[in-house]
């Protein structure tokens, strides 16, 4: 008999996401021409992998999974608020934007991240929607101006992850849908970076 915190379908979606993150991390090795982009790309995919591994433990272990609930919430907030701005910063560097804009993009989620860690879930959701909106706008603009159409798929998967995952009419747990959308996001982010 499983405990209320165990959800094997969510653990499976975390496992798929960890695999997608690992695939992207393996294929990004030494692709980026700048140390900043190389480190950011690896860091963004490592964040996805770490959150997914913690999610596998959290949702797949009926006895001890609840022990990492707070840690999983923190790593999920980091993933939700930091990975997209990192991808935007990598694309900005790839397309020769000013370094100040790149650093500004990286600094933008710091305040929302701090507020979401110490605040409520509602505050985290509001900040996540704001970061997603501006991040998707940045990816869409950069990729459109440089004929990189993987950016559109990256934006679409990020929008689905944030704005459509709470739709209960699909009969899919929202965390599972977020994880599967994040799988597509990581893959298309890899393609947008390497295109």
Pattern of helices and strands:
HHHHHHHH
Strand content: under 5%
Tally of strands: 0
Largest sheet: none
Number of domains: 1
Secondary structure category: mainly alpha
Helix content: over 70%
Radius of gyration, CA atoms, in whole angstroms? 16 Å
Distance between the termini: 48 Å
Give the averaged pLDDT, no decimals.
85
Describe the structure concisely:
Keywords: Membrane, Transmembrane, Transmembrane helix. Helices cover 78% and strands 0% of the residues. The protein has helices spanning 8-28, 35-60, 69-94, 99-107, 110-118, 121-145, 150-164, 174-194.
Walk me through the topology.
Layout: H1 8-28, H2 35-60, H3 69-94, H4 99-107, H5 110-118, H6 121-145, H7 150-164, H8 174-194
Transmembrane segments: 6-28, 40-59, 71-92
Keywords: Membrane, Transmembrane, Transmembrane helix
Features:
195 residues, mainly alpha, 8 helices, 0% strand, globular
Please describe what this structure looks like:
The chain has 195 residues and is mainly α. It has one domain. The protein is 78% helix and 0% strand. α1 runs parallel beside α8, α2 runs antiparallel to α3 and α3 runs antiparallel to α4. The termini are far apart. 42% of the residues are buried.
């Amino acid at each position: 008999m499983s405990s209320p915190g165990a959800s094997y379908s969510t653990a499976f979606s975390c496992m798929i996401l960890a695999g997608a993150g690992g695939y992207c991390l393996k294929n990004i090795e030494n692709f980026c021409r700048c140390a900043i982009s190389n480190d950011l790309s690896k860091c963004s995919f490592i964040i996805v992998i770490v959150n997914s591994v913690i999610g596998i433990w959290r949702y797949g272990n009926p006895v001890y999974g609840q022990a990492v609930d707070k840690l999983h919430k923190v790593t999920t907030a980091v993933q939700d608020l930091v990975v997209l701005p990192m991808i935007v910063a990598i694309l900005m560097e790839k397309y020769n934007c000013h370094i100040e804009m790149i650093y500004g993009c990286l600094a933008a989620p710091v305040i929302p991240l701090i507020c979401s860690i110490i605040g409520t879930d509602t505050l985290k959701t509001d900040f996540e929607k704001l970061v997603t909106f501006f991040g998707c706008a940045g990816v869409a603009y950069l990729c459109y101006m440089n004929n990189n159409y993987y950016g559109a798929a990256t934006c679409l998967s990020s929008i689905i992850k944030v704005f459509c995952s709470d739709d209960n009419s699909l009969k899919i747990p929202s965390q599972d849908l977020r994880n599967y959308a994040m799988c597509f996001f990581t893959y298309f982010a890899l393609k947008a970076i390497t295109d």
